[in-house]
Structure formats: C-alpha cells, structure tokens
Amino acid sequence: MSKILFTDLQIKKLSKNKWIKKISNKAITYTDEFKIKLVKETENYKKFPRDVFKECGIDPDIVGKKRIEIAAYHWRKKYKDTGEIRDTKKGNSGRRLEHELSNEEKLKRAEAKIKLLEAENELLKKNELIEMGLLTDIKSISNLK
Question: What is the distance between the alpha carbons of residues 75 and 32, in angstroms, rounded to a whole number?
C-alpha cells in the first residue's frame, strides 16, 4: 500500500468515476471491468497503463505513477495465470478471508492476548508510580515486576 494518502477532495472526485468501486484515503478498489480493460488495452504494449487511466477519467497524477504500475503488473499477472480478474477478497476490501480457527489456535491467541494485557498492566502500574513520584530511578523501574 502506498504511503501517499488521498485528500477528501481527491476522494470525492475519484469516487464519482464509474471505474472505481470504492475509495478511502489509503486505497482504491477498481471495478473488474476496468481491470480487464486495462489488461486488454496494454497487451503487447499497445498503450501504457497511465494512458488507460487518463482515458477512463482517472487522474494519474492523483493516483500516482507507482500505484498504477504495481496495479497493472498484478492485474496482468493474474489474468495471465488464471484467465480472469475478479476481486476475491471478503467484502472486496483489503482483508483476506479468515479460515475457521482450531481450538489450539484459539488457545494460542488467547494466551498471547493475556500476555500482552499483563505487560500493558505492568506498564500502567509503573507509570502510575512514576507520576506519584515514588519511582525516579530508571534502573529501579526495570527491576520492578
């Protein structure tokens, strides 16, 4: 994912485009039709991906050169490997489908969460002691349990 964030104005402008399914300040989800159009039109270097974006009313300067190149690369690869381009993610978001967790996996996650909460609790206790002025020496903080 790109580090470049979209402004509210850019989101508003891009969300009106028929080729964009969904947009947030961090990511864009394009329609499957747009992906196929780009793959077909850039086949054998007939056009550059940037040109397809321009023709479809998607400003390449807003989206970003690198974001366009990476998306086009992935779509072409997927089309070449599977012969189709479909958004297979749950709810068409960036999150992958989760499988059903086994009891062992659930236990491991619960134990990890308990450890994290215990560490957080210890940190809060130490912070409170520091604020009360009872702890001033950094070395004594690390010895506390």
Answer: 10
